[in-house]
Amino acid sequence: MTHNDCIFCQILAGNAPAAWVVDDGPIVAFMDIFPLQPGHVLVIPREHHQYVTELDSYTRGLLMETAARIATAMRVIHPAGTDLNWVINDGKAAWQHVPHVHLHLLPRSGRDNLSLINRMATRFMRKPDMTAFEADAARIRAVLEHS
Asked: Which of 40, 97, 100, 102 is catalytic?
């Protein structure tokens, strides 16, 4: 099931740009075009569902397993280690801006002063840097290919 007005479904259909991290199988991942931090990855099911509870248990598990593989790759890229927020905003009142299940993998450091509330509201004001997204996606892909 896809929805023409869903940006993630448009990305999956090849009608919108993405810097792919994982692009095969029922779960895919790409760089967030409005990142809260450099390296911000979105992990989504290929099939359109708004709520996590709409996913069957296999797909929910695969979403987490795919995210875990990517998180491991992110930690390889940053040898000092990468702390991550794993965030799922489940519904509009929970700040789900795109009504398609998605898990944010958000790199963190003790020095980033990132306030999720403030940054979520202002992140759409910045122009995306597709070159940087492609470079981040390529580094993660390289690690995933060898794991």
From this structure: 102
Give Cβ neighbours of residue 16 (< 8 Å, ≥ 6 apart).
7, 10
> Are the beta carbons of 73 and 138 closer than 8 angstroms?
no
What does the pLDDT look like over 10-27, one tens digit per residue?
999 999 999 999 999 999
Per-residue CA distances from 79 to 1, 13, 62, 108 (Å)? 40, 35, 26, 14
CB-based contact 18:11 (threshold 8 Å): yes
- Which are the contacts of 18, defined by CB distance < 8 A and separation ≥ 6? 11, 30, 31, 33
Is residue 49 part of the annotated active site? The answer reads: no
pTM to 2 decimals?
0.82
Q: Which two tokens stand for residue 45?
A: 């099911």
Comparison of pLDDT for 133 and 64, the residue scoring more: 64
List strand residue ranges (DSSP E) for the chain, in order: 20-22, 27-31, 41-45, 83-87, 103-108
Q: What is the 3-class SS of 70-105, one letter each residue?
A: HHHHHHHHCCCCCEEEEECCCCHHHCCCCCCCCEEE
| pLDDT of 79 higher than 70 | no
